[in-house]
């Protein structure tokens, strides 16, 4: 699945299916290394891609994935969101040993959504901040549309705005 969400002068944003998950994981890992590492080559990168891809597959059933592609259909940004069942360990718990359930208010009717695999290529002629904001906006917009069509999912959910 690849549905056009928005079209701009230099790129398009799509809502994509699970068949794009491997490409999203690969893109995120390479962008993370490009932005956060001084190492030119990374040992075991294939193992890291495989491991994170398998982790993402466990979230895939309730995931929504958005990708931005330039006019040459090259991925330049992505974001993934999924409805968390509070059973699967989130990356923040695995990596930093932070259990989100210790920090959030919860009721029986609460629903929690995890936003992750957020990456933007800063080596393109598009504002990375602008692209970042647009990906987040379309992610939130999809949640809003879900709220309008399926309000029971959000019934009695706490609203934590700071």
Describe what you observe in this structure.
There is one protein chain. The chain has four helices and five strands; from the N terminus they run ββααββαβα. It is α+β, with helices and mostly antiparallel strands. The protein has a single domain (2-154), classed as Aminopeptidase (3-Layer(aba) Sandwich). The longest helix is centred in the last third of the chain and has 22 residues, at 128-149. The termini are far apart. The model is unreliable at 156-162 (pLDDT under 50).
What can be said about this structure in brief?
The protein has 162 residues and is of the alpha+beta class. The chain has four helices and five strands, in the order E-E-H-H-E-E-H-E-H.
Write the layout of secondary structure elements.
Blueprint lengths: L1 E6 L3 E6 L4 H16 L8 H15 L3 E8 L4 E10 L6 H6 L15 E9 L7 H22 L13
Antiparallel strand pairs: 1-2, 2-3, 3-4, 4-5
Helix pairs in contact: 1-2
Major sheet: order of its strands? 1-2-3-4-5
Task: Let me know the number of strands.
Answer: 5
Number of domains: 1
CATH architecture: 3-Layer(aba) Sandwich
Keywords:
single chain, 162 residues, alpha+beta, Aminopeptidase, 5-stranded antiparallel β-sheet, globular, disordered C terminus
